[in-house]
Specification:
four-stranded antiparallel β-sheet, six-stranded antiparallel barrel, alpha+beta
Length: 418
């Protein structure tokens, strides 16, 4: 009996085994089919970047790249036509005010200086001779005037004596002699007055001539000073304590008046020049705080100027340093700057998805609770920062979204994440 029962059980298991296998395969197939049909597109999770909605104080900032440039720059230029005789200092050297940078030469200027000196000396000698001559004439005229005065006074004494005698009618003085003396006295008086007028006119003439000579001498002295200055300008000296940034000439080269020779910049006076995209420049204002990143240090700054012009899609923003320069600061050093626009208290924000624009409505893919699927949702975004953006509506605190490039599946409403 036992052997017979054992054989029957074996036969029953053999009969239903294929049916069990088929049922399991069909169940798994139905489940996989339903799982796959839940999404229109699938993507590998390792190829995506996610962001989680957070809530709190949100700092709005704008980033721009740029360089450090000297705030105080001076170009040394040629004030005369000349040839470059010698370049004393090479670019990169620190110089003190008054240190020789470039030596120029111009023989014609040296010759002009010497000729001007000789001409000035000749005019001084001529002026001295004229003054001596004028003094001699003045003294002569003064003696003539004194002779006329003495003649008048002598005749006046004689007239007074004759007047007394003539009044007594004593016959000592005839009327003819009296009238003659009176006429002579009037003539002497008139002559004296004329000589006085001539002397005064001569004084005025001497003063006028001296003024004219002094003016001509002063003009000649100015001409000499200008010639001397031109010769002195052949030596190009540093105008400030600085670093030579550039030397624009070489020995033997001819330079024209006004041509640039060397560029000086103060090493300890630098500003940051940032290039901000024109679409973001509307929120940048003078006085806003800036963090400058030199790759080694981060230092605080403040916006001092916003260029009114747009160049190649960017606007230049000048930033002054607040707490001094970092130790690695050098002219033309590449930097990044983060301009603080505003602070929004207690708001939703998320890491900025690619291509997300401030103050816009867009479609983002939000993950479900299990993270197996992501569905497209409409989201309204607010102010954007460098790496984050404000969420106005469409997402809640703790929601996770895809922030990497979604252009491959943007036409699908739902995607599966493997």
């Amino acid at each position: 009996m036992d052997i017979v029962i054992s054989k029957q059980k074996k036969s029953l298991l053999k009969r239903f085994w294929p049916l069990v296998i088929s049922t399991l395969i069909a169940g798994v197939g139905i489940y996989l089919t339903q799982f796959i049909e839940q999404a229109d597109f699938s993507i590998d999770s390792n190829s995506m970047v996610y962001g989680e909605v957070q809530q709190g104080n949100f700092s709005v900032s704008i980033r721009g790249s740029g360089v450090l440039v000297p705030d105080k720059i001076q170009w040394l230029s040629a004030s005369v036509n000349a040839h470059v005789e010698r370049v004393v200092v090479k670019p990169g050297k620190a110089v003190k005010k008054g240190e020789l940078i470039i030596e120029l030469s111009n023989p014609s200027l040296q010759q002009l200086l010497e000729e001007t000196q000789w001409e000035l000396e000749a005019k001084i000698a001529e002026s001295t001779a004229s003054q001596v001559e004028q003094k001699s004439l003045f003294l002569f005229q003064r003696s003539v005037m004194l002779d006329a005065q003495l003649g008048y006074e002598s005749s006046k004494l004689k007239l007074d004596a004759q007047s007394k005698l003539f009044a007594k009618q004593s016959g000592a003085v005839s009327k003819i002699d009296y009238e003659k003396t009176r006429l002579e006295t009037e003539q002497f008086n008139r002559r004296w007055q004329i000589q006085q007028e001539i002397l005064e006119t001569m004084k005025d003439n001497i003063v006028a001539q001296n003024n004219a000579r002094n003016s001509r001498l002063q003009k000649m002295r100015k001409t000499l000073e200008r010639a001397q200055q031109q010769v002195d300008d052949l030596m190009i000296f540093a105008s400030i304590d600085s670093v030579v940034q550039e030397v624009a000439v070489e020995p033997g080269q001819r330079v024209n008046m006004g041509g640039n020779l060397a560029k000086l910049a103060q090493q300890n006076s630098l500003i940051a020049e940032l290039q901000v995209p024109e679409l973001l420049i509307g929120e940048v204002n003078i006085g806003q705080s800036v963090i400058i990143d030199t790759r080694n240090y981060k230092v605080a700054g403040i916006v001092s100027r916003v260029d009114p012009a747009v160049v190649n899609g960017s606007v230049q923003v000048d930033v002054d340093f607040v707490d001094g320069l970092p130790s690695d600061a050098r002219p033309d050093l590449a930097i990044d700057g983060e301009i603080k626009i505003t602070e929004i208290a207690n708001t939703l924000y998320v890491n900025r998805p690619i291509f997300a624009q401030s103050q816009s409505s867009t479609s983002l893919y939000k993950l479900d609770l299990d993270g197996d699927f992501a569905s497209r949702v409409k989201v309204k975004l607010g102010k954007g920062s460098v790496n984050q953006i404000q969420v106005i509506s469409g997402l809640a605190l703790g929601d996770k979204i895809i922030i990497s490039d979604a252009s491959r599946w943007e036409s699908y409403q739902k995607i599966r994440i493997n």
